[in-house]
């Protein structure tokens, strides 16, 4: 498996940890939220506002399922675990790493979920979303790295050590 795919909640550090890990491993870095924005020529929050949650997830599934990479660290959005085609594709092309973070940490980091482009259904709280996705992250993960109590540098170190 030549790619590393990060999954986890928004604000779990997928992009930040991904960029530095890619540099240290000599891998390419791909942020699929940027690929979505480039394809749609809009910000994530605007895509969600215009197309709704289901419309956004369809785009997210398509973009992620089409990622072609070799020796890359891939950081998809947190909602990618709802995208069956994308997750099947990622299982085939790499190792899926769940960046596990407590709800309290996510809540402190995330601020306003809507401004960040987090996919929330009507009436759904951030905690509801966390609990719903946690099960999916655990289902798809090949490797789990618990970030709680670790500095950013320590988390990156664990990732790099796992793939040297």
Instruction: State the share of residues found in helices, binned by percent.
Output: 40-55%
> Which term fits the overall shape?
globular
> Count of helical segments?
7
N-to-C order of helices and strands: EHEHHEHEHHEH
Summarize the structure.
This protein is of the alpha/beta class and 164 residues long. It is built from 7 helices and 5 strands, in the order βαβααβαβααβα.
What does this structure look like?
It is a single chain. The chain is of the alpha/beta class and 164 residues long. The chain has seven helices and five strands, in the order E-H-E-H-H-E-H-E-H-H-E-H. Strands 2-3-1-4-5 form a five-stranded parallel sheet, sandwiched between helices. The protein is globular and about 40 Å long. The model has no long low-confidence stretch (mean pLDDT 92).
